[in-house]
Design brief:
Radius of gyration: 25 Å
Structural class: alpha+beta
Helix content: 10-25%
Order of helices and strands: HEEEEEHEEEE
Number of helices: 2
Amino acid sequence: MIVETIRALITLLRENIEQNTTLSAGAITEISTLPAIVLTGPSLTEKKRLMRDPERITAIDYEAGVAAREIPPRWYDLRFDVSVACESNLGLLELIEKFSRLNQSHITLTAKNADRERVYTWAWNLMASSDVFPNVSQVFQCKGEIIVYDVEIYSNIREEYSLITEINTEVKIQHE
């Protein structure tokens, strides 16, 4: 669900803050137009308290006559560094205000794939804040950090077995 969660976060930012939002592949990202939002990451922090390796998730499909047991997922918090660049300090402050509104109006993030749909809580770990002065390229920038909580990665290690659908018994009665 990591890829789907990243796509959902980028879509949320593009639709509500700035269309020019991208995920950076490395430390240096070339920006051709401003304003721009660049996400770097994610870095993953495993949630050890949610580990349940000895347990198994069991799903029963009575219609198909099968059951499946699966190892529980591992859980991670996804951390993204957020860099915002604008032509003016006023433009930067307007985007920061939009970020605050977004976290108030969209407190969850929905990620979907072919098998699952999940809703995750996300928040600013460090709210984007601005510098008063532009950088050497005369671009005003700010940085922050977003965390998406409790994203699961399933093992896809499954044991499938057929359900018992019919029992035949034969009883022999012996007469003395």
